[in-house]
Structures are given as C-alpha cells and as structure tokens.
Amino acid sequence: MALRLDSVPLRVRPVRRLPQLFGGLALYGASMGLLVRANLGLDPWDVLHQGLTDRIGVLSFGAVTQLVGLAVLLCWIPLRQRPGFGTVSNIVLIGFAVDATLALLPTPDSLVLRAAYLVAGIVLNAVAAATYVGARLGPGSRDGLMTGLHMRTGWSLRLIRTAIELTVLAVGWLLGGTVGVGTVLYAVTIGPLTQLFLRWLIWSD
C-alpha cells in the first residue's frame, strides 16, 4: 500500500481535515512536553530546542521551537519549496501546545513515572505526526527542508535526514540539551510507529 503524502488543497473537505490537522499539532506539542518532563533524553530537534532555551534564558521552550521552525522555513526559499497551510500551523500551534503541557506537568521524581512519560511521549508523538501529516495540508518546516534538499541534490531521504538530525543533535548536546536513552529509543521506534499509524490516519481525496 503506497502512502500519498503530497498536499491536497484546503478547499477539499476542510471540515474534516482541519480538526485532524489542529488535533494532531496539539497532540504533538503535548507529546514533546511529556518527553521533556521524562528527562531521559529527547529527539534530536528537541535537544536543540532545549539547549537553545537554556542558553537564551528569556524565551520559553515553545517560543524557541517556533523560532527554529521559522528559521528552517526560511531555508526553503533557495530550495524553492512552497509552504502549505499545515506548514504555518505547525510552526505556530506546536509551540503553544508544548508550553501549555510543560506548565501543567511537573517533572516526576519516580523513575518509573518518568519512563512511563517517555514511552507515552514517543507513542503519542507518532500518533500526532501521523495525524497532522495524514491531513495532507503541507509538511512541517523540518520535513520540508529534508524533502527540498532531496529534490535539489538527488541524495537519498535517509541520508539527508540522518545528516540533518545528527547535526542538530550534536549542536543541541553542545548547548546543553538532554541526550539519553530516550534519544536512542525515539530514534529506533518513531519511524515504524509513525508509518503504522499513517496507514489508519492518512487522508485520501
């Protein structure tokens, strides 16, 4: 079964697809908050976000996430990528959702509860990614950077994604972001989990 991830115009059944997009983005932000509160290691981009948040000191985690997303979106210009409605929504809504989650959830003292946060965060992250990507209203800025580089260079998506994520992971770690067992667990499980959920949540025209 081939999964079509190209964008579909917003005018096509927006009543169904907009709630899917917004719900997926809100859930994605919540899953990020769970991973931060687990304090067992973040995904590469969130290692960068956390490192920048700690270094800047005056901006929230969500605000830094938004600013990084905007900076990555500017990289689309030389790649001649066009953002969709979902791309802009991704930058704005995820930042607010992760800040709201962090405001509500304290960091637990129990290692068992932190491990539960980690597992729940990874699974919810995959569900959320499949939900908003499945709405087919435009990729997130980071995904668009990957596909744009693929189209311009001809290099494989796997190679480009690996290079990007290793780069942001290294920079984030040097800035003080949390790298740990959760980083490894996320790396090995997020792809298969997202692929699994996409088969149920992908929107077809």
Automatic annotation (TrEMBL):
The keyword Manganese does not apply. Keywords: Membrane, Transmembrane, Transmembrane helix. The chain crosses the membrane at residues 21-38, 58-77, 84-105, 111-134. It comes from the Bacteria. It holds the Pfam family DUF6198. This is Integral membrane protein. It comes from Kutzneria albida DSM 43870.
